[in-house]
Design brief:
The chain has one domain. It has 4 helices and 2 strands, in the order H-H-E-H-E-H. The chain has a two-stranded antiparallel sheet with strand order 1-2. The longest helix is centred in the C-terminal third of the chain and has 34 residues.
Length: 134
């Protein structure tokens, strides 16, 4: 029963946002690690694209009320798209990593993840209270 309560549109969107944020953290770390690698171009994701994909897939969430009804198709999320940034200014070795920018992106990403995780936790606490009858 608990699994059914947590498998709703909002929870899935929050989970997708946390997944995207964790992937972005890995990419930022990879960018910083390659600051001195010649010809390296920074990697990033498009949060709007990642979240819109999840949101649009669940636009019509239907419930089966009879076993003979047609089931919902599986969500089939496409993977989060990683982009290589090639249009920014480069150094003499064409590497385009700016450590200060990456650190700022990391701080922003961390705050985003914490906010989403806190929202998800509050949602789960509310469901837990409802199940327990509080």
């Amino acid at each position: 029963m608990w699994q059914k309560l947590t498998e709703n549109r909002t929870s899935k969107l929050l989970e997708r946002a946390m997944d995207a944020s964790m992937l972005r953290k890995q990419l930022i770390n990879q960018n910083i690690a390659n600051v001195n690698t010649p010809f390296y171009k920074r990697l990033d994701i498009d949060f709007a694209d990642a979240l819109n994909d999840r949101f649009n897939k669940d636009e019509l969430e239907m419930v089966r009320t009879h076993p003979m009804h047609i089931p919902n198709p599986p969500p089939g999320l496409r993977p989060i798209k990683i982009t290589r940034e090639t249009k920014t200014l480069s150094r003499y070795d064409t590497n385009n990593i700016d450590v200060e920018f990456e650190m700022a992106q990391d701080a922003q990403n961390t705050l985003f993840f914490q906010a989403v995780a806190q929202t998800w936790k509050k949602r789960m606490d509310t469901l837990k209270s409802a199940v327990q009858g509080r």
